[in-house]
Specification:
mainly alpha, 78% helix
Length: 101
């Protein structure tokens, strides 16, 4: 249980860091609306992929718990929260305006 909690924490922190990196990679600065829209769509796909991969951590833990006849519901609940995070971020995120020049 403790190792699983640590793995979920690492998955969450990794998701947050990867989201920040994706936001920076898809940032816009004084671009036209078509470029901003393309960056928004790319960023949303990146973030959805990142959080679906992060959701795989508690899903894998739930599968391992099921094989060992342990409680599955805590890992399923955490996976559900990760899916809610994925949906909320994907639907609301906008490209950053971090200008390097």
């Amino acid at each position: 249980m403790v190792v699983g909690g640590l793995l979920v924490a690492v998955g969450f922190v990794g998701g947050v860091l990867a989201t920040a990196i994706a936001s920076w990679a898809n940032s816009v600065c004084n671009d036209d609306s078509a470029t901003v829209n393309a960056s928004r769509q790319a960023l949303r796909l990146d973030v959805l992929f990142i959080w679906l991969v992060a959701t795989g951590v508690p899903v894998a833990l739930a599968a391992a718990a099921k094989r060992r006849d342990r409680h599955v519901w805590p890992w399923v609940a955490v996976a559900g929260m990760f899916l809610l995070i994925a949906a909320a971020i994907t639907l609301s995120i906008q490209p950053a305006k971090w200008c390097l020049y």
